[in-house]
Amino acid sequence: MIPAEQIALWADMLRDISAKGMHYAADVHEQLAFGRVQDVAMEMFGLVTGLSPEAVESLRTPIFSRPTPLVVGDAAVIDDAGRMLLIRRADNGMWSMPGGAIDVGETPAEGVVREALEETGIRCRATTLVGVFDSRFCGATSSQQLCMFVFLCEPLEHGATGDPTLSEEVLDVSWFAEESLPEDLDASHLSRIPEAFRVWRGDHRAFFDGAD
Questions:
Q1: Domain CATH code at residue 107
Q2: Contact predicate 172/50, CB 8 Å
Q3: Could you give the CA distance from residue 11 to residue 45 in angstroms, rounded to a whole number?
Q4: pTM for this entry
Q5: Same domain, 163 and 146
Q6: Which of helix, strand or coil describes residue 76?
Q7: N or C: which end of the chain has fewer CB within 10 A?
Q8: Is 90 exceeded by the pLDDT of residue 5?
Q9: Same structural domain for residues 104 and 82?
Q10: Quick one: which of 206, 186, 28 has its CA closest to 96?
Q11: What percent of the chain has pLDDT over 90?
Q12: Same domain (yes/no): 85, 158
């Protein structure tokens, strides 16, 4: 782990500690103490990302005030011909499975179905859990630790034949066979897409990162 990655990990750990501490604080003094821990976490995050103080401050409520790792999910949508639905992301130009953050009030399976629809215009149904991945071990570049759910999904008949629609987060949408996946895949999807095809072929054992 390079120094910047270590500092980002420490900042994320302090984020979690401060968010929990502020939630369970017994009095105003504890609130102020954990608030200072949160400030330090945000300063460390700004240091390793190069974001402006204003940009970092905008993350206080949605990111730094949330305890525990952040929860995201991806939809591995594979049709009857064995083709997977992928998007070209607007933020880095790389291909990936459609997905994003799970909203409060929805299950991870509901979240990936919603994300697939929002990002591609394709309606699908989650059928099987492919696995739960730790962002630290699968090539993700996030500065916060993510718990990443991947669900195998099947396109619904009326959605599979429709034209994919692009969103502001998506440059392109297309279907790819396993043997002809694009070379410019997002790094965090390189190891997870093969797991999805494994499950699609009938091996329904869910992947998870080991406890060692």
A1: 3.90.79.10
A2: no
A3: 6
A4: 0.76
A5: yes
A6: strand
A7: C
A8: no
A9: yes
A10: 186
A11: 69
A12: yes
Tokens of 185: 């895949």
Give the H or E element holding residue 208: strand 207-208
Residue 38's φ and ψ, nearest 5 degrees, are -65, -40
- Hey, which residues does 128 pair with through a beta bridge? 152
Distance CA 118, CA 32 (A): 40
- Rounded to the nearest 10 degrees, the angle between the axes of helix 3-24 and helix 28-49 is 160
Given 64, 91, 106, the domain boundary residue is 64
Number of domains in the chain: 2
Separation of alpha carbons 189 and 140, rounded Å:
8
Whole domain around residue 34: which residue ranges? 3-64
Give 10-36 pLDDT, tens digit per residue: 999 999 899 889 888 889 999 999 999
| The one-letter amino acid at 125 | R
Give the SS3 label for residue 94.
Answer: coil
C-alpha 135/C-alpha 146 separation (Å) is 5
